[in-house]
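User: Hi! I'm working on a homework problem where we have to compare a predicted structure to a textbook description. Could you give me the structure for the chain below?
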Amino acid sequence: MKYKKNTNSLLFVLYGSVMFLYMYLPIFVLAFYSFNQSAYSARWKGFSLEWYARLLSDRRILQALVNSLAVGAISVTIAAIVGTMMAVGLAKYRFPGKNLYRGVAYLPLIIPDIAIAISTLIFLAVLRVQLSFWTIVASHVIFCLAYIAIVVSSRFAHLDRHLEEAALDLGATPLQAFLKVLLPELRPAIVAGCLLAFVLSFDDFLISSFTAGTRSTTLPLEIFSRIRTGVKPDINALGVLLILFSGAIAYIAELIINRQETDNHYQ
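Assistant: Happy to help. Predicted structure tokens:
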């Protein structure tokens, strides 16, 4: 019996190792060749940090980075305000069609990106809106809104509803009760939702490619335009930096969510 248990454990570890290797081997290869001295990724000529240094002097990359950061920051800020209000409204109030509204609000979580991209482009064409930086922002708000709203809703479901009522009984106005009692309790969820939404916005390619105008190229679009002629070590270096950046933000968001769940458990 003990031998069978040890065999099952060994098989489980072996299976897990193979799966992790399958998932992360391309990333290891990407990181390895980002230090390649050769201008061709398939040939190793020695260790070099030249390609990381070149990224710092590449104006097109830096401008695309600024565009991506600006799109993410603006769209997440708008989505945070609207998404928080939407989550609180759905949790506190009853109105006709509430369940239908909730389902429609969360549809961007399950709708394929290509469908969102095409529908947004058609909508902008019908309104005769010229594609620009702001059309990318508008399209990113759509899916950022859903992610932030669902994270805030999960936090609101675990709040003590009597806190706001107590504030109102003590003379606070509804706005004061929201700002001084409810909002501080929701802040961890709002921050976590914003971080996750920012990563999705920063990494988005498909929706941005349909809604971007001239001189509004984001970083994923710039990368795609360059790899058409082959992947070079500078793109590998940029990929490594993006993975580290996105991973750090996702880790911070998960850390906030886990700490929030731990606090709820002890409460």
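For your comparison, note the following. The domain at 55-266 is CATH 1.10.3720.10 (MetI-like fold). The two ends are 42 Å apart (CA to CA). Good luck with the assignment!
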